Amino acid sequence: MSNDQPTSGQPPEDDPFSKKPPGSQPPPSSGSPYDSAPPPPPYDPGPYGGGPYGGTDPLAGMPPLAEPGKRILARLIDFLIISIPLYLISLPWGGAVEMSDNNNDDNVGDIFAQTYSGHQLLWSLIGLVCYVAYDTYFTHKDGRTLGKRLLKLRVAMLNDGRVPDTGSAFLRAVVLWVPALLCCPCLWWLINIVLMFTDKPYKQGLQDKAAKTVVVVTN
Fold it and tell me: Can you give the C-alpha Rg of the chain in angstroms?
């Protein structure tokens, strides 16, 4: 018999059921991604007194917001990256854009009906799938479409600055492109451009508000 056995009535030191002194047990996990790392620095409330989704300003510690002019240029680059190949592919089938042979007395209703029916509607739907897939893939990948990469911009989640997940990236792309291609293209782009210049404090377009994202500067 070993002489190292614990005395009667005294549990071993590593007994998992023994009562530990106060302060010796680890705090319960809250499920936060910061549980295994030091907590982030406290946020600075900023001049606007906190964000619309609760608490202090979610932009604290994040890069500066992107300038609207750079955002517009990045979007134009992305538009050309998709639209030019799509148009060239459509040429053997008559082109993605049909030109009217009527006189100049066409009214707005006739132009709208001609644009969103038959051949043109098919290519609008094909274009919609391409634009949404393009935006969703690159936004979820690292927050940067090719246009944003060229201009050193990135889409980030408003609450913590991370890259958007697939659901947020898809929602953002749908809200941006479905009205722009199938409903009210000129008005939709105008609304978003105005919001990028006037929205306070985050310069969010409608797609950003829907997906709770912002566009920031990156290196």
Answer: 27
Average pLDDT of the residues of the chain = 76
pLDDT of residue 90: 82
In angstroms, the CA 38 to CA 36 distance is: 7
pLDDT in tens, 65-101: 999 999 999 999 999 999 999 989 888 877 665 544 5
> Are residues 86 and 127 in contact, defined by beta-carbon separation less than 8 angstroms?
yes
0.70 exceeded by pTM: no
DSSP 110-125: HHHHHHTSHHHHHHHH
Interatomic CA distance for residues 115 and 103, integer angstroms: 16
How do the residues of the chain divide into helix, strand and coil, expressed in percent and rounded to 5? 45, 5, 50
Helix 166-182 with 118-142: angle, nearest 10 deg: 150
CA dihedral sign of residues 31, 35, 36, 42: positive
In Å, what is the CA distance from 205 to each residue of 3, 71, 200, 214? 75, 10, 11, 9
